[in-house]
Amino acid sequence: MIATAEQQMDSISTFDITKYPLFDVMKDIKFGRIQLPDFQRDWIWDDSHVRRLLASISLAYPIGAVMMLQQGIQHQQFKPRLLDGVATAVPQTPHLLVLDGQQRLTTLFMVLLSEQPVIIKDAKSQKLTKKWYYLDIEKSLEPECDSFGKLR
After folding, report:
1. Which partner from 21, 81, 86, 108 sits 20 to 30 angstroms from 43, CA to CA?
2. How far is 6 from 82, CA to CA, in rounded Å?
3. Residue 137 has what pLDDT?
4. Contact assessment for residue 117 and residue 132, using Cβ atoms and an 8 Å cutoff
5. Taking Cα atoms as reference points, which of 67, 51, 89 lies closest to residue 13?
6. Is there a contact between 152 and 144 (Cβ–Cβ < 8 Å)?
7. 3-state DSSP call for residue 80?
8. Would you tell me how many other CB atoms lie within 10 Å of the CB of residue 86?
């Protein structure tokens, strides 16, 4: 059976460019309102990727767009799963699935809201280590230092 043009148009999603505050996105990830589709790969960033993302955000540089798919309660297109680092007692049906931006969102969630150290795989040794990420506020405010308190 061949679908008519009208049937094809009904199946096309509409796109929306919405700006959400970062903290609201992080809370939605924490409570399972934002999840991943099951086909997404796991989080794989190393320490240098994490540091560069945090530096970009601390300097108010754009870090790229995130693309999400609205997930209907009655019509789930993909099986959802929580982002790495999320531990919620009561998983719920997500409202949104992350299609693009998963590495950035997972990193930000783990650093800012997970209350756990970030588990990083060392690029050379392949060993797993736990890291906490901090900003030295006093050093960050010095004009000759970068946002992590290191001399430029």
Report:
1. 21
2. 35
3. 74
4. yes
5. 67
6. yes
7. strand
8. 20
Residue 31 burial by CB count (10 A; 0-12/13-18/19+): exposed, middle or buried? Answer: middle
Give 99's pLDDT tier (boundaries 50, 70, 90).
Answer: very high
Helix (H, G, I), strand (E, B) or coil at 111: helix
Query: What confidence score (pLDDT) does residue 111 get?
Result: 93
Say how far apart CA 68 and CA 50 lie, in whole Å.
22
Distance in angstroms (rounded) separating the CA atoms of residues 54 and 60: 10
Element containing residue 64 per DSSP (H, E): none
- The span from the first CA to the last CA of the chain, in angstroms, equals 65
Report the SS3 class of residue 56. helix
pLDDT in tens, 11-69: 455 667 778 888 999 999 999 999 999 898 889 899 999 999 998 888 788 888 899 98
Reading the block at residue 41, the tokens are 């790969």
At 61 the three-state DSSP class reads: coil
By residue count, the chain amounts to 152
Q: CB–CB of 120/133 below 8 Å?
A: no
